Amino acid sequence: MRAVGWGLFVAWAVHDTEEVLTATWWSRRTLPRLRAEGWPDRLVERLATTTPQFAVAAAVVGVAVLLAAWHGARTNGRSPLFQAAVLVFGWHGVVHVAQAVLVRGYVPGLAGAVFVVVPYAVWAWRTTPAPRPGGWVVAGTAAAAIGLTVAGQALGSVVA
Questions:
Q1: DSSP-derived secondary structure letter, 76
Q2: How far apart are CA 139 and CA 2, in angstroms?
Q3: pTM of the model as a whole
């Protein structure tokens, strides 16, 4: 069960490494196409990112993921917080697929989402014992993940 806990951090690291390595390339390749297709400039500007910006954001989120993984390993996967983190992480992978459909192409992290994030989340969810986290724990974990991501992106745009 400790492997399930630490697996969260490993899966996240693989996924976010792909995101970091492809951020600048994706922005340069995809954003001009979206502008040409008539996407609103304000939205396209919000999608723009660079590898250094993404690396800062990933580091911020990574601290929380490391703590959740440690907690999962320490509790043999029984922690409601860890289980909620696994669930939110799995849905994060599904969001990447939806983003790719929306932009009709690759998005940073898509390969990791399809081949690492979703399979890990399904495996971890099936492997960890009950009881399952309540709705408020899952909602709070999702809100915290979104908040950390936004804060990390803001910090990344300032320091990188």
A1: T
A2: 25
A3: 0.91
